[in-house]
Amino acid sequence: MTDERCKVLIVDDEKSIAMGLTSLIDWSSYGCEIIGLAHNGKTGFETAMYSMPHLIVTDIRMPLMDGLEMITKLRENKHPARFIILSGFSEFEYARRAMQLGINHYVLKPVEEAELKTSVAEIAGLVLSSYRGPEESVAELPKSAPTELIDQINAYIENHFAESITLLSLSEQFYLNPNYLSQLFKKKNRETFSQFLTRVRMEKAKQMLTVSDAKIHQICKETGYSDARYFRELFEKHTGQSPGEYRRRIRNAE
User: Fold this and answer.
1) What confidence score (pLDDT) does residue 253 get?
2) Lowest-confidence range among 20-24, 79-83, 144-148, 202-206?
3) Is residue 141 part of a domain?
């Protein structure tokens, strides 16, 4: 195990929630390590000053010292930690105060796995990039050079083009910061993720139109689109012809 880990402190006065967060996601897959739990803001502050975590996941409303007071005090003491705030729907005023502190990672209670993963992936990516530099992967899988990594991602898209692929889902699949993945993708492929995915899907659609008698709406679904009209618009933009016109031209030429 490398020492280059994103150290995480969890602060929540509900012990069951704090313990649940430790197992809700696979922290190690994001390069993270849980180094402690605290159950009020005062203990959270003291633990943070002692153990120096990179990331603090904290509730807002807690005894002795609330989450925002803890964050303010840590900032006053020049603590470099980043924060994810847990909050309920009724705590808008607390959220507004958090925005004033420059915190933009919120996860609503009850905590959803996907929401927590998104925030952790982004923050861990920033922390670990400071260890490894901007050209390295956040994954703990053997480290891949950027070109090899993009080759893997391109192959994944080629094999899963019919699924609902997004930049966020890819970043979770390959344990990368979404912003870093977007920049790396454009640098290595010389086109954006969206352009690449559309091009792959359009090429697959052309193949289907050429070799099969499937209806247009079937090809639409089989290339990852739920809206047939949108599919036709993209196809025409890509080829200069509607799907039906393309099929007729190809078959008349044979």
Assistant:
1) 79
2) 144-148
3) no
Q: Which of 243, 240, 239 is nearest to 231 (CA)?
A: 243
For the full predicted model, state whether its pTM sits above 0.90: no
Do 89 and 172 share a structural domain? no
29 has a pLDDT exceeding 60:
yes
By the 10 Å C-beta count (0-12 exposed, 13-18 middle, 19+ buried), 142 is classed as exposed
Select from 169, 177, 173 the least CA-distant residue to 129.
Answer: 177
Burial state string for 100-131 with b = 16 or more CB within 10 A and e = fewer than 16: eeebebbbeeebeeeebbbbbbbbbbbbbbee
Same domain, 16 and 123: yes
Residues 6 and 54 sit within 8 Å (Cβ to Cβ): yes
Tokens of 182: 């977007």
CATH number at residue 37: 3.40.50.2300
77 shares a domain with 92: yes
High-pLDDT (> 70) share of the chain, %: 85
What is the domain-level CATH number for residue 236?
Answer: 1.10.10.60
In whole angstroms, what is the distance from residue 237 CA to residue 96 CA?
Answer: 43
Using alpha carbons, select from 197, 169, 167 the residue that is nearest to residue 182: 167
Domain housing 228: 195-253
pLDDT tens-digit readout, 196-230: 999 999 999 999 999 888 999 999 999 999 899 99
| Range with the poorest average pLDDT among 79-93, 139-153, 228-242 | 139-153
Say yes or no: 174 and 76 in one domain. no
